[in-house]
Amino acid sequence: MKQSHTDSFIEVMDTTLRDGEQCPGVDYSSEAKLQIAELLLTRVRVDRIEIASAGSAKREFETCTEIMRWAKKNGFNDRIEVLSRVDKKSVDWIYETGCRVMNLLAKGSERHCRRQLKMTPDNHLKEIGHIVRYAHKRGIAVNVYLEDWSRGMAQSKRYVYQMVECLTKLPVRRLMICDTVGVLDFDQTRTFVEEILLQWDRHIDFHGHNDYGFGGANTLAAVKAGVHGIHVTVNGLGERVGNASQAEVVAAIHDFSRCVTHIDELQLRAASRVVSALSGKDIAENAPVVGRDAFVNTAGIHADGNLKGGLYESSLKPERFGAKASYALGKLCGKGSIIQILRNLGFHLTRKRIMEVKAHVDKIVERGHPVTEADIPFIVREILGKQEYVKFELIDVTTQSRMGGSGHARAVIRYKGKLHTIDYSGTGGFDAFISGVREWAKGEGEKIEIPAVIDYKPVIPPGGKSDAIVVTNITWRTSKGEEFKTYGLDPDQVIAGIIAVVKAVNLTNNTL
Q1: 479-496 pLDDT, tens per residue?
Q2: Which of 258, 282, 460, 486 is most deeply buried (CB count within 10 A of its CB)?
Q3: pTM: predicted TM-score of the whole model, two decimal places
């Protein structure tokens, strides 16, 4: 939370568990809903959450009841809300779960009122008044949604004003104005909000949808116009293309307005991952703040500019959200990207070694394999551990393995400046190569020792997500009983093992 003595406070209501569950294919279990509710209130520190629609199936009633038990025990009971229709059954349903805050869904456009409800505005207002007073008598605080308010302001402003005027005379805590189908732009949002603020002198929330991709921008416009609260969902989950995204909106409010929230920005990415896992909806890789690529620089010119004074940085610094900047390694990367990654990892290499690392990365990328930051320590190890004196050199190799059958290896090696061909079969590609090397060694005039394999262990970079490289570590034993290790580095596990064989032959037979 950013704050100064001149800041205004914006209340954040998260509706991931109600509107977010209207996202196609999302159906939270009771335990999942409780997990998300706890996360949002205790860690992310949203001000309120909306958890369900009243009158839903029995399982939803039981879930709401369970969440309310937890909320009362932990002091959050007045921060849990449930959507209600304009009927007594909804009020009773909410009351019986233990919830004491109701979000009444009223029509914010005359078109919705007349066509969907088949009511006159007067009759709709009469019913709203009746239900609000009924809920109030039962000890339930009432907020009112004006559904389709955005088109109401554009097409039936007199109706909206009539609705607001009547609501001012009722015990309504908050007015919640909705761009239900996401049709507003930034300017319209600001204008319409300013107009409605002249009619309502109590708390106003803005609820925006993202059909044109304007959900976050319109929410910011509403904040700039003077609303007191905003509605969001984690990862922008919601009906159709979804709602204003929690992380995007919070960051924008903090950076582009003089307003503050209670939100802990360090928890936004964690919340995103949890909701993604429990909802089954992937996070877009390029999603602002929470996406996998949010803080990844690809172009070498960007890395170079950041080295020279943070020229490509913005207020969205990764550390602010508990992340760190990284640099993608591909055909667009340059020396600057390599230097940034090496610094992040704690390596301090000479210019020559840096260029060797880059050349190694380029070689892997040209073979069609992506390289990540996790691969770099292995590449550095390869560069720094490179043998200075080599008798036995691998020029080319092809291996073949077959399920239930034998393997084969065909290789070209250079030994003491002369080329030799190894063509051999074995139980697999690796076995065929090393067996072929042993057979070749027998035919040489001088004694060439091929050590025995004691252990063979392939390793991939931490996290198991990279298909760029495999490091194959092999433990060997010489004829004198001495043990040592070599490793090979390659995108192919078998080739990595073969590279380790070549190193072992050199170490065993060379005097370095």
Answers
A1: 888 888 888 888 888 999
A2: 486
A3: 0.71
